[in-house]
# Entry
Amino acid sequence: MEKVKKLFGGIDLTWKKVIIFSIIAGVYTAIMSMLPIVKDTSFEDIKVSFEVWILFGIIIIMNSKSAKDSALKCFVFFLISQPLVYLIQDVIKHSNLFMAYYRNWIVWTILTIPMGFIGYFMKKDKWWGLVILTPMLVFLGLHYMGFLGKTIYNFPHHLLSMLFCIITLIIYPIGIFTNKKVRIIGIIISILIILITSVLAITNNDVYNTTVLVNGGSTGAVFDDSYKVYLEDESFGRVYIEKNESLDDYVVNAEFKKAGKTNIILENPNGNKEVYEIDIKSNTYDINKKLGSDVNE
# Structure
């Protein structure tokens, strides 16, 4: 508890520390964005989602000396860290990510000025401090819901991010407020957010919709609407044949409910089957015709 309290108000946050903190955050995020080994894991989430950046912002707010100090330090922190994420990748990968993506983040960077200013008043330890915090808790809860859905779809991917959201949802009311009544109400709000978003994530599982086979395509599959198609393991979802108007040809579409490996069986009207091995991932897949898969019945 003492370490939590120190994190949320016990740090002598000088401008030098803010600048060093922003550089470290930017460099770390850039590295996580480029490492192939962390692709589609919790370590890569920092480059596209807000849960860790919310923590950084609250740490700065709670350790600032005034509302103005909070607003300026939040702004400078994000003004340095966010461009660094793209600029480092541009230098190493010879890309143009800064021009392509930073315009999406500059608005958030500007918004840190009023958010940092208003957020400072959480330090007053009053009920309206909880009113200021609650939108951030709800926003964090939406992140938790997304990560829970992704974890269910492709376990254990994004599990750490999901747990991070749960932990910080509980820690924020405890670390920010000393007023017992405000703290308890804050914890109750966080628990309700976790419960509600958990139910929503579980009852609305992530579904990956895609086209896996095209008639006469690169896999060599040839079929029309007289064929049958199905998954060897139907727990992965479903596949079906339909006419694609833009291609003016038949395709096999899929609705995948989870990641993993299974087979797609394509069966002609005579009962002859072709088997395609598919490795389903979060937003992509690998598919190949199984050697010796033609089966005549």
Notes: The chain has eight helices and seven strands.
